[in-house]
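Researcher: Predict the fold of Probable dual-specificity RNA methyltransferase RlmN.
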Amino acid sequence: MKPFIYDYTLEELQTWVKEQGEPAFRAGQIFDWIYVKRVTDFENMTNLSKSLRTKLNDSFQFVTLKEITHMKSSDGTIKFLFGLHDDHAIETVVMKHNYGNSVCVTTQVGCRVGCTFCASTLGGLKRNLTAGEIVAQVVAAQKILDETNERVSSIVIMGTGEPFENYEATMNFLRIMIHEKGLNIGQRHITVSTSGIVPSIYKFAEENTQINLAISIHAPNDKLRSKLMPVNRRFPFEDVMKALKFYQEKTGRRITFEYALIGGVNDQVEHAEELAEVLIRMDMLAHVNLIPVNYVPERDYVRTPKNEIFKFYNALIDRGINATIRREQGHDIAAACGQLRAKHLESNAR
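Model: Structure tokens for Probable dual-specificity RNA methyltransferase RlmN follow.
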């Protein structure tokens, strides 16, 4: 199968162009056609020679995302289920905020991390996406926004999969997204979320970017986190915190701690107090994002009552920890990770 043109960073494309006997600036022209004009046919790249267009067509293909279905929420959130070339399916979510449009992308088909409250892990991991398959999700979102003269203003890598277990593809995706000749998304408008893949956190600290890092923490200690997130048995809580501290010392960047509140499991005031103690002890520049857990039929968890959420929130604030309660979006369309794909797999299995 021919490689995807979206897989290539500008630097990699410059190398390929020069190997074809063409000047390096042709790569910038190709990037402009792909990401600014958003064409999906090499023949439409009219300022390139016929021979170069033929070489492009012979060497590359565009990622084909076939829309299986989409759902639109009353708040404007749109969730897409896209089919890939090998009949796997992935989800992408476009969210409208008062500050712009955000796209939540998927990095893997399925997930092997195994969080017990998440639909993404149902069925396990099938394969990694290429950088181009991640890029294609943002391009598809941008094409939809083109219809109303809007643009993608931010990206969150919080869809299905663990991006730090697909590290190189994720990093190439990021390099393409932030490039001024590409979609030119500001680095501080991109957030990567990890479940705590310790070696990759150290690598990411050395990348010298301004991209935001979020950690799915969901518990204040080793025992409870291992119960909720089996990945914690590979990378224990304390090791994750040390890696995050290294990242912070290296970059000076604040870290977002994602905490899904599960009724009667991890949502008591003492859990908030313990989390605050850990962040204070580690001297972390932290923001805690509290997330009322989404109901997943295959999981036996319930949502924390609103008054209990505020008790948890206030316990953090009272101890000097910056915290917010995530505003829900797409709740009426099963917009949480993996839910739409899980329904699709279930219907296909019948």
